[in-house]
Amino acid sequence: MGITIVQKSDLQKKKPKATKALILAGGAVTGGSFKAGGLKALNDYLVGFQVTDFDLYVGISSGSLLAAPLMGGIPPHSILRSLDGTSKHFTQLRGWHYYRPNIDEFIGRPIRFFLKAASWIPTRMLRVLQHPSLVTAFPKNLLLFLQAPSLQRYDDMLSPLSDVLGPLSLTSFVDLLPSGLFDNRPIEHYIRTNIERNGLTNDFNVAAQMTGKRLYICAMTLDGAKRVIFGPGENTSATISEAVMASTAMPGFYRPASIRGIDYVDGGVQETADIDIAIRKGAQLLVCYNPFRPYEREQFVDAHKRRTYKGDLAAGGIFGVLNQIFRAAFHARLRMALKQFERDPSFKGDIILIEPRPDDVDFFMLNPFSLRHSVKAAQLGFTSVRNSIEEKFEEVKKIFASYGIKMSRARVNREYDLLKSRSADDDKVRKVLEERK
């Protein structure tokens, strides 16, 4: 099933003023496009309410890229238009924003390595010359050791030498490796310039005062491995754009995001969706969107070779294996969190978790780091949410109705029919997805 529901409130009791939260988990580059397409579908189901009308937003990893503009009132269709540069709110989102090489470290680390290596021998020779007694003492201690070897004489021979020379190990070749392949500072610049372009604020507290909505973005400190929650009433040492940079700094792929002397990495490292934040902030209706779930069908389509493997993910190579492992780990954590709140007697709200179907071959075969698949991923996100909600439409409709939100199939089904007939043409798909509600 693509939708999981934890329903614990009294649905007969109307609660239109209850706090409503939208939680957007990670999913790499195409995961963001997938969610934008899915949010378009969810938005078009809603009547008299939009995904920009939630009271509270939580963004993790690539989800923070969407949570920030949604909190600012920018709808999904405008976010999708940023892919082709036709948005009135956003400048075009290009590959350079995601894939700027980590030039500083690719060039700087080898230079520092060879400078340190080149100075290693001269530095230690200078130390010896500064201690002439060592020149006469070492041969004497060496001769005594050779005449009658013992641990004590071995220590007598090397200890003075070690004291003068310091560590004898040469700089490790591991120091040549960068802390990440790419640098995501262009993402921060993109978010910051577009916030300014729309006359919005880059400050969490001011944004909450201006909009009446709260935005929380999660990351992890590299030194200490502590979860950091950026947002009003929490950590406000970073701007919104800096928090997005911190939350999207996927280890290995991006270098750690350095903000005022502190290094941060992807918020998804510790938590998949951070549902607890929204609940702690008073949310009673929580809609959680997680595009990163494991594949559970008996066949796997390799994204690169377009070949089909039956029942053997290992046949897809290391990328297929790692893709599945990370998806499984993130998904298992999220399931554990849902079970926790399902059993928690103090939680009296409702959670709607939206994910791709477990047999969604098309989405699983997308390269999660490729921007070339953004339009396709957005279309699949739209279709995935539509199909998932259709399976439990009456149940979802009943929950939303309890919070004063109406739902209708009409618009979504019309768009779904158009997408089915035009799926091979990216321009026509984009036109359907970018249509204003």
How does this model look, in words?
The chain contains 18 helices and 16 strands. It has 437 residues and is α/β, with parallel strands linked by helices. It has two domains: 320 residues, Cytosolic phospholipase A2 catalytic domain (3-Layer(aba) Sandwich), CATH 3.40.1090; 73 residues, no CATH class. Helix 15 packs across helix 18.
How is the secondary structure organized here?
Elements: E1 3-7, E2 20-24, H1 28-45, E3 46-47, E4 56-60, H2 63-71, H3 76-81, H4 95-98, E5 100-101, H5 103-118, H6 120-129, H7 132-147, H8 151-165, E6 180-183, H9 185-197, H10 204-211, E7 214-221, E8 227-230, H11 240-247, E9 252-254, E10 257-259, E11 262-266, H12 275-280, E12 285-289, E13 299-301, E14 308-310, H13 317-343, E15 350-354, H14 361-364, H15 374-391, H16 393-402, E16 406-407, H17 410-421, H18 426-433
Parallel strand pairs: 2-4, 2-12, 4-7, 6-9, 12-15
Antiparallel strand pairs: 1-15, 3-16, 5-6, 7-8, 7-11, 10-11, 13-14
Helix pairs in contact: 1-15, 7-8, 9-11, 15-17, 15-18
